[in-house]
Every structure is written in structure tokens, then in C-alpha cells.
Amino acid sequence: TFYMFPITIGFAAWFAYKQIKKFNAIKEGVKQIKAGDFHHRIEIDGKGEFAILSNHINSITDGLNTAVERELKSERMKTELITNVSHDIRTPLTSIITYVDLLKKERDPLKVEEYVEVLDQKSQRLKLLTDDLFEAPKASSGTIPVHLERIDILSLLTQGLGEVNAKIEA
User: Fold this and answer.
1) CA pseudo-torsion sign 43, 45, 51, 55
2) What is the CA radius of gyration of the chain?
3) Distance of alpha carbon 128 from alpha carbon 125, whole angstroms
4) Tens of pLDDT along 66-122?
5) Can you say how many angstroms the Cα of residue 151 is from the centroid of all Cα atoms in its chain?
């Protein structure tokens, strides 16, 4: 007993020191993650409870990092969408304003009829863009039902080429 007691106390102190060191590593790692370093990894050797805890914290950090990246990507996409929509809406609107100014000055009935036709086309395009703009949030939220249908790909391609045929020839 006289010799075993110091050895047992020494072993217990060594074991406690290792456990306290692991605990402090976890505590410091959590502080760094809390401060915003989402790439920090808590590395604990062994298979004990502290190693399991550090793995769970690392998993939470990975999930948080993924969520932050996904949110940043979403914000960039929203900004890009707003930019594109603004440009797409501004184009027909500018044409409408220009043709209205031309109509105010024009006295030739043939030119007036031509301008009115262009105004009709541009206003219909603007209406379509505005409708699409209001439908986009519904589509992304999943509130619009989707009905899958078979399509004839050949007629779809023919229709698409027919719509842009003038631009292709130009």
C-alpha cells in the first residue's frame, strides 16, 4: 500500500491532466468558433467522450459553414436577379417612353399607326415581364403546382428556332 498509493495518485494526476488539457482545447476551440472562425477544427486524440464531443462540435461547425456559404450564394443570386430584372424591365419601358415622345410630335397617320404598333408590342412585353416577376417568388416557394407532361422535342425546337429566326438570319 505504501508504494501503490503514490503510483495510483501519480497515475490519477496524469490522467486528470490529460483530460483537463482536452477540455481546455475544446473550450478554446469553441471560443474561436464563437468569434466567427468557422473553419477552425477541434482536434482531440483518442476515443473518449471529449473526442466524441469535439467531433460533434466540428460537425456543427461544418453545417454552419455550409449554411453561411449557401446564404451568401443566395444573396448574390438575389442581387443578380434584381439587376437582370431591372435591365429587362427598363428596356421596353425606355422604348415606350421614346415612342410616346415621337407620337406627340408626329402628324403622319401612317407613322402614328406604326408607332402605336411598336408601343403595343413593348407594353405587352413589359406586362409579360411584370407578370413573370410576380410569378417568380411563387415558383421558388413551391406554391405553384407543377404538372409534368410529355413534350415533342422536335416541335419545341422548331418553335424556338422560328421565334428567333429573324435574329439568326440577321
Assistant:
1) positive
2) 34
3) 5
4) 998 999 998 898 888 888 888 888 888 888 899 899 889 888 889 889 989 989 998
5) 30
